[in-house]
């Protein structure tokens, strides 16, 4: 019982870690991922990962292929969809829209902090 309560408390404190773990399990169960050149990813500092978006699973595969915490950009139209928004907020996704000016996009991300 204490382990269950501790697990619930940890999930409440760190929902992004729980969601990332669940997504890692799902992607490694469904896909056979082979990462080449993982040693080229710096342990600290900035790095830019680019997906070619062959599917909507690209972000999940990228997230499960590295130990680093990754921030994603997402089109605001997809971000605002009902089922997507809670998960995107937990993962710290940054919504962007081409119709808005950069400062307007910046105000969206500052509200989510």
Would you give an account of this structure?
- With 113 residues, this protein is mostly helical.
- It has one domain (15-111).
- The protein contains six helices and two strands; from the N terminus they run H-H-H-E-H-H-E-H.
- The chain has helices at 2-13, 15-30, 58-64, 76-79, 84-91, 102-111, and strands spanning 73-75, 94-96.
- Strands 1-2 form a two-stranded parallel sheet.
- Helix 1 packs across helix 2 (15-30).
- The radius of gyration is 16 Å and the shape is globular.
- The model has no long low-confidence stretch (mean pLDDT 79).
Annotation keywords:
113 residues, globular
Mind sketching the topology for me?
Blueprint: H1 2-13, H2 15-30, H3 58-64, E1 73-75, H4 76-79, H5 84-91, E2 94-96, H6 102-111
Parallel strand pairs: 1-2
Mean pLDDT rating:
79
Order of helices and strands: HHHEHHEH
Fraction of helical residues = 40-55%
Gyration radius, to the nearest Å? 16 Å
The number of distinct β-strands equals 2
The best one-word shape is: globular
Brief sketch in words of this structure:
The chain has helices at 2-13, 15-30, 58-64, 76-79, 84-91, 102-111, and strands at residues 73-75, 94-96.
């Amino acid at each position: 019982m204490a382990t269950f309560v501790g697990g619930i408390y940890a999930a409440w404190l760190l929902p992004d870690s729980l969601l990332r773990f669940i997504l890692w399990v799902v992607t490694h169960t469904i896909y056979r991922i082979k990462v080449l050149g993982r040693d080229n990813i710096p342990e600290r500092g900035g790095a830019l990962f680019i997906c070619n978006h062959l599917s909507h699973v690209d972000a999940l595969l990228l997230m499960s292929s590295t130990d680093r915490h990754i921030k994603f950009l997402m089109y605001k139209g997809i971000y605002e969809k009902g089922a997507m928004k809670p998960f995107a907020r937990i993962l710290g996704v940054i919504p962007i829209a081409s119709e808005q000016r950069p400062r307007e996009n910046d105000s969206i991300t500052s509200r989510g902090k």
